[in-house]
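Dear support,

I submitted the protein below through the web form. The confirmation email said the job was done, but the results page showed an empty box. After a refresh the structure appeared. I'm attaching both so you can tell me whether what I see now is the final result or a partial one.
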Amino acid sequence: MVKIRLSTKGRYGLRAMVDLAVHSKGDHVALNSIAQRQGISIHYLEQVFSQLRKSGLVKSVKGAQGGYTLAEPPENITVGRILRALEGPLSIIDKDEQNTGEEETSIEQCIRIKVWDKMNECLNELVDSITLEDLVEDYRKINEEEYIMYYI
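What the results page shows now:
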């Protein structure tokens, strides 16, 4: 089985962004509350949110009532934007592993064009088709189902 791996930064960052979208309700959310709910180190989240802020995905406010909020409505933020802000370009194999110069053989070129490039295209289309709002809606549906109690 081929495993396409995202770093911890990408996985934790996506979780934290969903948490922020779920819990913000127009207010700022403290990083320590996200860290507690998600079981992520506050120091690690500070690094992640620094990158998210530089990418224009979140805004920060300092002070007692401070914290983070989404920079845009969740329906405008895609999973692809979040992951690229934290991981860089999304690709199933590193550019270093691909021969794209003069020494690329016709077999390598065929594989690159017919397999790797198409897989990258599908991967990017997928993550760009899922919004933060989609994930929030799914989270709420799952969360409601967990708390439904049936009485006889």
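Response: this is the final, complete result; the empty box was a page-load delay. The longest helix spans residues 106-129.
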